[in-house]
Design brief:
CATH superfamily of the largest domain in chain B: MetI-like
Oligomer: heterodimer
CATH class of the largest domain in chain A: Alpha Beta
Number of strands of chain B: 0
Distance between the termini of chain A: 38 Å
Radius of gyration of chain A: 24 Å
Order of helices and strands of chain A: EEEHEEEHHHEHEHEEHHEEEEEEEEEEE
CATH topology of the largest domain in chain B: MetI-like fold
Helix content of chain A: 10-25%
Largest interface: A-B, 24 and 17 residues
Strand order of the largest sheet of chain A: 6-7-8-3-9-10
Number of helices of chain B: 14
Number of helices of chain A: 8
CATH architecture of the largest domain in chain A: 3-Layer(aba) Sandwich
Shape of chain B: flat
Helix content of chain B: over 70%
Strand content of chain A: 25-35%
Largest sheet of chain B: none
CATH architecture of the largest domain in chain B: Orthogonal Bundle
Number of domains of chain B: 2
Largest sheet of chain A: 6 strands, mixed
Structural class of chain B: mainly alpha
Strand content of chain B: under 5%
Shape of chain A: elongated
CATH class of the largest domain in chain B: Mainly Alpha
CATH topology of the largest domain in chain A: Rossmann fold
Distance between the termini of chain B: 59 Å
Chain lengths: 355, 311
């Protein structure tokens, strides 16, 4: 187990820059998730830690040892690929023991390590099979087993669940978390799925356009997104954004409605801001009350547990997530209140959070 | 109740015999055009060729054409030129195939590496395949000729030859002439097929193996070779049959000589048929070659099947 330090990392493919000056330190035993849309550079960063991509500038250290020039096999890391990358002509047992064999580990030790890993992942009955004869979930497990047997300093996961169907993904997500709790190895996990990021991470690194947007524990990112990108990326259904300007002590939205400025926040007159409201923080109230709005229901999407209600409000298609059933009927008016303590304000110029 | 069961015949078929026949014939009628084509252009000539092997057909003898039974085969059994041609065929085929395969594989591995101008290099490497075999035979014959070609002089300068002479006229080395030409001409075939197979190998596997600690040789052994094996087997099979039948280069470069030292079975057939105009005897030799190649193909097909079923 080890810590990973990433210092001023830059990466360009030819003339195309993909990572800009990335700084990140990952503690011993920490589970860090790199999350962002495709093309944000998260996989490239992971592959640089693995040694599969050259480092254009900057330094990566594992336990204070600079590894920029160290070959992947000497970095003592294990990687789980999106495609699993299992050797198709080897059995499950051979797949798992391949790295140990190459390291000339004693036969008994290999058998012991493979046995232990197989037991942990429930692979015992599959050891003699070839990958072709396995289901997607089983292949995924073998890929994890192959990583575990080596007891590496760090695990790197490159979107390991994206090839699985939703149910299996949920199941494997829990399994990875449990596995991490029991092994406690430093892990770096790349995903574009914010739910995976939220559920698995000790710390989330939200990336966009080759830049780290915010680093923090999952609930921090949810409660206090640092900028518009993180606010829009974390959370499902996604946060509502309403554009407006500060006019005479209130925020005037594009349709002329007024929203009170939350306490403790100072805006300059005329400042262009974006208000962020999570759908689950919009309240539906019984009748018109002070500061409430009335809007016509546009669309109702029941998800089973809750309901997503779309209304036309503040010049926006505003989403509301409610657990109450039957409160919204398409075409009928709805009374809505915004909780001012739950509002997020962003400067529209810099996209950064205000307050 | 009972009248119900009596009403329907046991098999439930109420069609007339004519209708039943039509239904039976229907699929054959649909496939008739293709079947007629196959019979007309493949089976009829084959049967005709096989029948020649048992008949006395000499173009210069107007009274020939009678059935002679196994006479040609008895002659063949004691024909030392045929035996020599068989041995030459083995020699010609296997050295050509092995060298073509080795160089083709190396070329494919090189062309699979990313480098600047790779597309151009790929196109250039596949050029020999586009050269007509007769033209490449003539080219190489001239290159080996010390009067107009550079190769004997190079070999002399390197000390491999005591004097710049034509290897095609030396019975000891003559076979190498057509083999070299054949290797040059056939490398692209292997390079193309191997490159296609190489490009189908997922890159992740190499990355996973790299992280697992496999060096370049180990990665080649444990990923590239198993992935290429089925393609290797089928392309070597194809090329072997092809080359064993491939007399163009030999006819053009040495015409089987000197002293029959480059005569292979295919060129021997050509000589018998078109120089001595003995079609009967030529057909008998061709039949033997066909049987040998069929046996070989069966062997390889079985081998490939067992190999694939193991995966």
């Amino acid at each position: 187990m080890a810590s990973i330090t990433i210092e001023a990392i830059t990466k360009t493919f030819g003339a195309v820059p993909v990572l800009h000056d990335i700084d990140l330190s990952i503690g011993d035993g920490e589970f860090v998730v790199l999350v962002g849309p495709s093309g944000c550079g998260k996989s490239t960063l992971l592959r640089m830690i693995a040694g599969l991509e050259d480092i254009t500038a900057g330094e990566i250290r594992i336990d204070d040892r600079r590894i920029n020039e160290v070959a992947p096999k000497d970095r003592d890391i294990a990687m789980v690929f999106q495609s699993y990358a299992l050797y198709p002509h080897m059995t499950v047992a051979d797949n798992m023991s391949y790295s140990l064999k190459l390291r000339k580990t004693a036969r008994e030790k290999i058998a012991e390590a493979v046995g232990a890993a197989a037991g942990k992942l429930g692979l015992d009955p599959l050891l003699a099979r070839r990958p072709k004869a396995l289901s997607g979930g089983q292949r995924q497990r073998v890929a994890m087993g192959r990583a575990i047997v080596r007891h590496p300093k760090a695990f790197l996961f490159d979107e390991p669940l994206s090839n699985l169907d939703a149910r299996l993904r949920e199941q494997m997500r829990a399994e990875i978390k449990r596995l991490h709790k029991s092994i406690g190895a430093t892990s770096v996990y790349v995903t574009h799925d914010q739910i995976e990021a939220m559920t698995l991470a000790d710390r989330i690194v939200a990336m966009h356009g080759g830049i780290i947007q915010q680093v923090g524990n999952p609930l921090d990112l949810y409660d206090r997104p640092a900028n518009l990108f993180v606010a829009g990326f974390i959370g499902s259904p996604a946060m509502n954004f309403v554009e407006g300007h500060c006019r005479a002590g209130v925020i005037e939205t594009t349709d002329g409605s007024k929203v009170a400025i939350p306490e403790g926040i100072h805006l300059t007159e005329g400042q262009a801001v974006t208000i962020g409201i999570r759908p689950e923080h919009v309240r539906i109230v019984a009748g018109s009350e002070a500061g409430s709005y009335t809007a016509r229901v546009d669309l109702v999407e029941p998800t089973g547990f809750g309901t997503i209600v779309h209304v036309r409000l503040l010049g926006q298609d505003l989403k509301i997530y409610t657990l109450e059933r039957g409160v919204a009927v398409v075409g009928q008016p709805l009374h809505i209140a915004l909780d001012s303590t739950r509002l997020h304000l962003f400067d529209r110029e810099t996209t950064n959070r205000i307050g | 109740m009972t009248s119900f069961s009596a009403a329907a015949p046991p098999n439930g078929d109420r069609r007339t015999p004519m209708q039943r026949l039509a239904a039976r014939l229907e699929p054959w009628l649909y496939s008739a055009p293709v079947l007629i084509l196959i019979v007309a252009i493949m089976l009829v000539p084959l049967a005709l060729g096989v029948s020649y092997a048992f008949r006395d057909i000499k173009l210069l003898n107007p009274f020939s054409g009678g059935f002679v039974g196994l006479k040609h085969f008895r002659e063949l059994a004691s024909d030392s030129a045929f035996r020599g041609a068989l041995i030459n065929t083995l020699w010609w085929t296997f050295s050509s195939v092995i060298l073509q395969f080795l160089f083709g594989l190396i070329l494919a591995l090189l062309l699979n590496q990313p480098f600047k101008g790779r597309a151009l290099a790929q196109a250039l490497c596949f050029l020999p395949w586009a050269v007509p075999s007769f033209l490449s035979g003539l080219d190489w014959a001239w290159m080996f000729n010390p009067v107009v070609g550079p190769i004997p002089h190079w070999l002399y300068a390197l000390g491999i030859m005591s004097e710049p002479s034509n290897i095609l006229s030396d019975p000891k080395t003559a076979m190498w002439g057509p083999i070299v030409a054949n290797v040059w001409w056939g490398i692209p075939f292997f390079a193309i097929t191997m490159l296609a197979a190489l490009q189908a190998i997922p890159k992740d596997l190499y990355e996973a193996a790299e992280i697992d600690g496999a060096g370049p040789i180990e990665r080649f052994r444990s990923i590239t070779v198993p992935f290429l094996a089925p393609t290797m087997a089928i392309s070597i099979l194809l090329r072997t049959v092809w080359i064993a039948n491939f007399a163009d280069l030999i006819i053009v470069m040495t015409n089987g000589g000197p002293a029959d030292r480059t005569q292979i079975v295919a060129s021997y057939i050509f000589t018998q048929a078109f120089r001595r105009l003995d079609f009967g005897y030529a057909s008998a030799i061709a039949l033997v070659l066909l049987v040998l190649l069929l046996a070989y193909s069966m062997l390889i097909v079985v081998l490939r099947q067992t190999m694939l079923s193991r995966h």
